Predict the 3D structure of the following.
Amino acid sequence: MAATKRAAVLCPGPSLFAAIPTLQAGTAGPYDVTVAVNRAAAVMPADFWAILDAESFDDVEPKGTPTIVIGERACKQLTRKHPNIRSTFDITLREDLAAPPRSTFWYRWTALVAVVTAWNFGAHEIDVYGADLKGKADFDGVILPRQHRDKRRWQRERSAWLKVGAWMRSERVFIRRLGTDRHPSTERQAQ
């Protein structure tokens, strides 16, 4: 029987700050796949970097050269702005990923695109850091006004997390949001 692949998804929420030393030391894993979300790509090298808009590429200098996961329209904008990007970064289109049903709205939220990316590359246990689903600031105190992080946004994203979590469990994929005020239905049930 093959071992279950594990993934770490690094989201830029405030709780990521406390996890950085453990992640950088490698004592949180071992992880077979690492996916960074937006500005979290600056924390440590990742295999993939999920960004949903071209502006996110310019927000941070990623550690290493992760494969960028981005929507098709945003990719066109990104390659217009950075014509040589493909000489440095591989790009995977969000639309090319096997995915949960569209009714889960996974494709609207970068953190959930990262979770789906980890699953696409074989992960069946996914630890998510920094997905706080509240507040405006990133792990390092930076606030990007274009992200519209208000109560309504977090309610909508939380709803999508619940739907994706339920669908992933039906596929025998277990998601654990670590270090947050997490909702129990997005996590692996105790054995």
In short: Strands lie at 5-10, 33-37, 48-50, 67-70, 91-93, 123-129, 174-178.
